Amino acid sequence: xxxxxxxxxxxxxxxxxxxxxxxxxxxxxxxxxxxxxxxxxxxxxxxxxxxxxxxxxxxxxxxxxxxxxxxxxxxxxxxxxxxxxxxxxxxxxxxxxxxxxxxxxxxxxxxxxxxxxxxxxxxxxxxxxxxxxxxxxxxxxxxxxxxxxxxxxxxxxxxxxxxxxxxxxxxxxxxxxxxxxxxxxxxxxxxxxxxxxxxxxxxxxxxxxxxxxxxxxxxxxxxxxxxxxxxxxxxxxxxxxxxxxxxxxxxxxxxxxxxxxxxxxxxxxxxxxxxxxxxxxxxxxxxxxxxxxxxxxxxxxxxxxxxxxxxxxxxxxxxxxxxxxxxxxxxxxxxxxxxxxxxxxxxxxxxxxxxxxxxxxxxxxxxxxxxxxxxxxxxxxxxxxxxxxxxxxxxxxxxxxx
Amino acid sequence: xxxxxxxxxxxxxxxxxxxxxxxxxxxxxxxxxxxxxxxxxxxxxxxxxxxxxxxxxxxxxxxxxxxxxxxxxxxxx
Lengths: 402, 77
What we know:
The structure holds two protein chains of two kinds. Chain A is α+β, with helices and mostly antiparallel strands. In chain A, 27% of the residues lie in helices and 26% in strands. The radius of gyration of chain A is 21 Å and the shape is globular. In chain B, the strands form two sheets. In chain B, strands 3-4-5-6 form a four-stranded antiparallel beta sheet, with no helix packed on it. In chain B, strands 1-2 form a two-stranded antiparallel ribbon. In chain B, a hairpin with a 4-residue loop joins strand 5 and strand 6. Chain B is built from one helix and six strands, in the order E-E-E-H-E-E-E. Classes of the chains: A alpha+beta, B mainly beta. The A-B interface holds A 227, 229-230, 236, 238-243, 245, 287-292, 294, 296-298, 331, 387-388 and B 1-2, 13-15, 18-19, 22, 27, 29, 34, 38-39, 41-48, 51, 69, 71-74.
C-alpha cells in the first residue's frame, strides 16, 4: 500500500483546444498507448485523447489483466508476442510501476481432441516465436499443486500446454502510466467529454463534435471499447462488429497463494490470483449482443461449477464482486485495426474481448500508422478490408477462453 | 436474466436458445452489387436500442423465432 501511495501519479487534465493534429476517441489503454507512442516515438505531441467518462473507465478497467501470446493463428501470435515483450519493458520505459508479474499460463486439456488442439497450439506458437510447450499432468501438478488431476472424476487432466510468458499487470496502472507519459510530452487528455458526432467535409472526417464544442483534427482515431459501432455510424461507416457483455468475478483472498494462470478451453473458464490474493475468474462472453452491463446469477453458477472441477479448493471461497464489460467482437475474433475507407477516420477495435493484452502492441502499431501513413507489417493482416477480400482471420484461440 | 417467449413452448430462459443474429438490413444507399453482398454477409447494425433478431430454440421445440429486443437493457420488447 505504501508503494502505491508514494508513487501516486501526476495527472493534470486539460481544457481542449479548437484544433489538433490527432484526436483519439477513448482514453483507455489503446487510446493512451497510441498517444504515448505518437509523442515519445514519433514526436507528434499536438494530440488530444477524449474520454466520455474518467480515464480507463471502460474495458481497460474491467478486464481480467491477463497478458499472453498463445493464440491460434500466426499473425495473432506475432502481434500478441510483441505486446507481451512490450509489457515486460513498460515499467522501465514509462518509469511507472504497473505491478507486472510473469506467472506462466497453464492451458488444460481434458479430452483427446483437447490434447490435439493444445499440441497444435504449442507447435504453431513455437514456429511463430512464442514460447508454448506441452507438459504432462504430473508437471502441471508441480506448477499448480491445487489442481485436481481427476477433474472431479469428470474432466481428467490429460495434459496441458504451458506458456511460461503468461503474465498479469495492474490494469489501472497501465492506463495511468501511459497517460502520465503522454501528458509529460504535451498530449492533452480530456476526461468527461463525450464525442457526440464527427465533423465532415464531404466524405472526409475533419474533426469531432464533443459535449463542449467542435474540435477539428487532421486524423481521428476511434480507440473505444464497446461502442465502436456508434462512432463508425457517425461517419456512415458500417462494421462487422457485435457488442457482447463479458463477465468476471473475484472471490475473497486465498492465503496459501496461487502461482500460475489456469485456463481450460473445454470448460471455457480461466482463473488467476490478483495482487490482493483474490481469485479472479472469467468465462466466455454472453451469447447475445447487448449494451447492458448487468451481470447475472447464471454466470456465477456456471463459472463456479466449472472451476470446481479443476480446482476444488475454490468451493471454500466466497464471491466478493462480479461485473460485466461490453466488448466489440469481430466475426473472426481477430482485431480490426487501421484504415476504414473513410478518409480521416481510423479505427482500432475487436482485440478478442476486452483487449488488455493487445494494448502496447496496438498502441505502437496505430501510432506508427498515424505517423507514417503506412500500415505496419505487424497489423497488416488485421485491416477492415480483409472482409471484402474474403481473408477473414478466424482465431478460436482469441476471444474469451477459446 | 433474459427470458424469451417461444410461440410453441412459452416463456423459457435464454440458456435454452441459440442466438441467430440480427436480421440483415442493407441500407438503401448501397447499390453496388459487391458492396451489397459484403454488407449482407458481414455488417451489423449492432444498435444500442431496439433490434429485430432471430433465435433458435435449441433445447426446446427446435424452431426459429423472430423477436424484438432492447440491447441497452437486454429485455424483449
